[in-house]
Amino acid sequence: MKFGVLRFPGSCDEVDALHAARRVGDAELLWHRERDLKGVDAIVVPGGFSYGDYLRAGAIARFSPVMESVIAFANGGGLVLGICNGFQVLCEARLLPGALLPNANLRFTFRQVQLEVVEHDTAFTRAHDGGRLSIPAKHSWGRYYADEPTLTAMQEHGQIVLRYAKGENFNGSLDDIAGVRNEQGNVFGLMPHPEHAVDELTGSTDGLCIFASMRMAVEGARV
Amino acid sequence: MKARVLIRPKAGILDPQGEAVQRALPALGFEGVANVHIGRLVELDVDDASQLEPMCEKLLANPLVEDYEIVLNQ
Asked: Taking 80 as the threshold, does the pLDDT of residue A222 lie above it?
């Protein structure tokens, strides 16, 4: 199975995402001006500050050539993971519901966060063996918001996949939401960084299960 | 044609920037200030003013969380 990791001007976590994806499969970088997704089985939209995050985080990246292809890929059922800035890009592209706003504390905040897995049977969490995830978060625009009708629909369809554990919601996200998927279940975004938690050297390997789940989903679909 | 687009957080959405400024004003002796909200101003020259609304919907604002107001200077 092969992951394609997008690279925008201003991306800064694409190399770690590539490294994490290579722990469970093959992976290559896809440049923002390319429309060709090179036959990859899943897409990772990485963290960073795409196009400088001018105007709003993720607002300009969503109109890049590669994102046109990613939107078509997602609409065709392809697996897409958005991490941090990637989550913002997917929300701006309307592949995921809601929006990300400046942190309630108005600060760029970097800390290890504890996450509760709310939905276990998803293409992005199926390889998780239970318990909380300990994953770093680092952002200034991570306050998740969706209006009331959207939130109700998300709850009905099991779209809230991850929540910050009690006391961990430093950015002021609505209902402690840390990660959401689309209604079809093939697009997932989260603010914390699973790609930075794949090696004991950095304190946690809890992020690996996200990538391993995606591999299971792709290979299960092939059988 | 010159145009201005005023973009502000939708009512009811937490606006921590506005709150921080509102808290700072009384400390400087400015009393009786309420409902401080902070948004963005986009100034632009356009040939066709009818394009402004789709511009706002697609890029200048995020209609899920922001209201926008178009002001034309003929």
From this structure: no
- What pTM, to 2 d.p., does this model score? 0.94
The CATH number given to whatever domain includes residue A157 is 3.40.50.880
pLDDT tens, residue by residue, A102-133? 999 999 999 999 999 999 999 999 999 889 99
DSSP-based helix, strand, coil % in chain B, nearest 5: 30, 30, 40
Length of chain A: 223
Residues of B in CB contact (< 8 Å) with A are 9, 13-14, 16-17, 20, 59-60, 62, 64-65
Is there a contact between B13 and A104 if contact means CB atoms under 8 Å apart?
Answer: no
CATH superfamily of the B2-73 domain: Phosphoribosylformylglycinamidine synthase subunit PurS (3.30.1280.10)
Contacts of B14 in chain A (CB under 8 A): 101, 104, 143, 172
Active site includes A120?
Answer: no
